[in-house]
Write a structure and sequence with these properties.
Oligomer: single chain
Helix content: 25-40%
Number of helices: 12
Number of domains: 1
CATH architecture: 3-Layer(aba) Sandwich
CATH class: Alpha Beta
Largest sheet: 10 strands, mixed
Strand content: 15-25%
Low-confidence stretches: 35-42
Order of helices and strands: EHEHEHHEHEHEHEHEHHEHEH
Number of strands: 10
């Protein structure tokens, strides 16, 4: 049965590679129920227990690629969470980042659907939505900042929904992505999370940065042209000098940050690209942004794809992005 696996100290300890004279982030991170005043429950989490934690950031995994397959993509995104967590936990704890800023909550355990047809996959994604958004809602209601590692970009929808329900209004999102993910609401999948969020009034202004002209269909381009809530900067225009500052200045006080790994050049994903942002472009965007985001969602990357492609670097990149995000928000 689908559920949230809440991590114990043992779950963390066996992922840490201890070394004399060094302290790793994994030795400093907090766990649910391990801070004073919090009580752990494997039947769910409470807002009060999250509030009791001294950590500002809640790290959570959604290791699934059902949404990617429901969008006719190649499976593999489910592999990103565990290896990324391993890389993050084995980052050095030092003056720049201690580790206690982060509570590692756990990950969602999601069963494969019995019906593997396209309809069955899309029905399963809707079930994942209902599993994820209440957890995000509790994290945000506790005054914490979720950092969610996917998984498919379908999970943007429940993250946006959970955040919006706390604020009792639609929120703004900045999506750094090669694709707008504004496909028709034809059943849930990784290509229409933002379509559903707009349709159900959880998403207000939607800012897209780095879209590829070659990989967004004409119907999506028409949506962007005609809907004032949709604002996009194309990667092709960035190459010729388009200004990102104006876009950032328009983003309101409650905004989520989405980073789809397929916008980064040569990063393993279902839609891996030879042309895109450099890794350091994305790191710089996070580290230099004056915006304090309501959440971070990193999606679509993989360490192993169903078609046999493998990369050990994806996990280390995710660890960099997570640590950069925390540093930018505590500076």
């Amino acid at each position: 049965m689908d559920n949230l696996k809440i991590y114990s100290q043992g779950d963390i300890d066996h992922l840490i590679i201890a070394r004399g004279g060094e302290i790793k982030l994994g030795e400093k991170v907090n766990l649910y129920g391990h801070d004073e005043g919090a009580s752990s429950s494997h039947n769910g989490i409470s807002v009060e227990a999250l509030k009791a934690s001294s950590s500002k950031f809640i790290l959570l995994g959604i290791p699934e690629d059902i949404g990617v397959r429901a969008n006719l993509g190649i499976a593999g995104a489910a592999s990103m969470w565990r290896q990324s967590l391993f890389a993050f936990l084995n980052t050095q704890s030092n003056r720049f980042l201690n580790g206690a800023e982060v509570l590692v909550l756990g990950h969602f355990e999601i069963d494969e659907p019995e019906d593997s047809s396209l309809k069955g996959l899309r029905n399963k994604v809707a079930q994942i939505d209902d599993l994820v958004y209440p957890v995000i809602e509790k994290i945000v209601a506790a005054g914490k900042i979720p950092i969610v590692i996917g998984g498919g970009h379908n999970n943007a929808y429940p993250i946006i929904k959970g955040t919006s329900l706390v604020y009792k209004s639609p929120i703004t999102v900045l999506n750094v992505d090669a694709h707008a993910d504004l496909r028709e609401p034809e059943g849930r999948h990784s290509g229409n999370g933002f379509s559903y969020a707009l349709k159900e009034n959880y998403l207000d202004n939607y800012f897209m940065y780095g879209l590829h002209q070659n990989y967004n269909n004409e119907a999506i381009l028409n949506q962007i042209d005609t809907n004032p809530k949709l604002k996009a900067v194309f990667f092709d225009d960035i190459l010729t000098g388009a200004n990102f500052t104006n876009l950032m200045n328009e983003i309101g006080p409650v905004a989520g940050l989405e980073i789809d790994m397929d916008c980064i050049q040569n990063v393993l994903s279902s839609a891996e690209t030879p042309s895109g942002f450099a890794v350091n472009d994305i790191r710089k965007l996070i580290l230099t942004s004056a915006k304090k985001f309501s959440y971070l969602h990193v999606s679509e990357g993989a360490t192993r794809m169903l078609d046999g492609r493998v990369s050990k670097l994806t996990a280390k990149l995710v660890a960099y992005l997570v640590s950069d995000f925390v540093k930018a928000h505590i500076s």
